[in-house]
Design goal:
Layout lengths: L11 H23 L18 H4 L7 H21 L4 H19 L9 H18 L2 H14 L15 H17 L39 H7 L17
Helix pairs in contact: 1-3, 3-5, 4-5, 4-7, 5-6, 5-7
Keywords: Hydrolase, Membrane, Protease, Transmembrane, Transmembrane helix
Membrane topology: Multi-pass membrane protein
Main location: membrane
């Protein structure tokens, strides 16, 4: 069974990243244009009002640098998710936002936690671990690419720098790992060659019959080859030429 049809381009691969990037930039533009500050709509741990940030915090950013740093990873990882895991991508994003936000609300410091970085950690973690769990060569390759490009993100799930919500990063990382383990992808395994199958009969292989025990090619006449294997039969078609009659 071939896995190729599973990986196919769809409009969501382009539309979802573009819409997501436009959404976070639009919110920031509204803040600047209207001289507003939406930080109070972020996650404020262990408070009832702070729970609204579970939904709103991914759209809110504290500065242009903060927004820019989240834009490219968000777009790239969403595009990868919707291409390689199209059937479950929306489920991963939906539960990723809710679970990572709730974890941040549970373990975070008494401060407003904002930004799309929690979702970015969900996507990076899910993409890496799902490729490892599924063991499909294309998804493993994707996991390695994620590690190569975003492997440094791992440091920021620890309190290594002031002003960064490491709790949100840790919540996203753990959520991605959890979703990779429980959300079924149904990715078909790539087809195997005959010699890779467990019931492969080496003695009955018509190709190997043309070699001796030492691997040397056995030369046979065309007539003998036709007798040995019906798969080599040739049909000859003669066309009558009336002029030669």
């Amino acid at each position: 069974m071939s896995g190729t049809p599973y990986f196919k381009f769809s409009h969501s691969v382009v539309v979802v990243p573009i819409v997501s990037v436009l959404a976070i930039w639009s919110v920031y533009w509204i803040e600047l244009a209207q001289q507003l500050n939406f930080n109070s709509y972020g996650i404020y741990p262990q408070t009832f009002s702070g729970l609204r940030g579970v939904v709103f915090s991914p759209f809110i950013h504290g500065s242009l640098e903060h927004l820019y740093n989240n834009t490219i990873p968000l777009a790239v990882l969403l595009a990868a998710l919707f291409y390689f895991y199209n059937k479950i991508a929306l489920k991963v994003v939906f539960w990723g936002i809710l679970l990572s936000g709730f974890l941040t609300w549970c373990i975070g410091r008494p401060s407003y936690h904002i930004g799309a970085s929690g979702l970015i950690y969900v996507l990076a973690s899910f993409t890496f671990f799902k490729g490892v769990f599924v063991k499909h060569y294309r998804l493993i390759a994707l996991s390695l690419v994620v590690v190569f490009i975003y492997g440094s993100l791992l440091w920021y799930i620890f309190p290594v720098k002031d002003g960064i919500s490491w709790e949100g990063h840790l919540g996203g990382f753990l959520t991605g790992l959890f979703l990779a383990a429980v959300v079924r992808a149904d990715v078909p395994l790539p087809s195997k060659f005959e010699w890779e199958k467990e019931d492969y009969d080496e003695d009955g292989d018509p190709f190997l019959k043309h070699f001796d025990a030492n691997g040397n090619f056995i030369e046979t006449k065309p007539e003998e080859a036709l007798k040995e294997d019906d798969s080599f039969k040739v049909n000859y078609i003669y066309k009558r030429n009336p002029d030669n009659d």
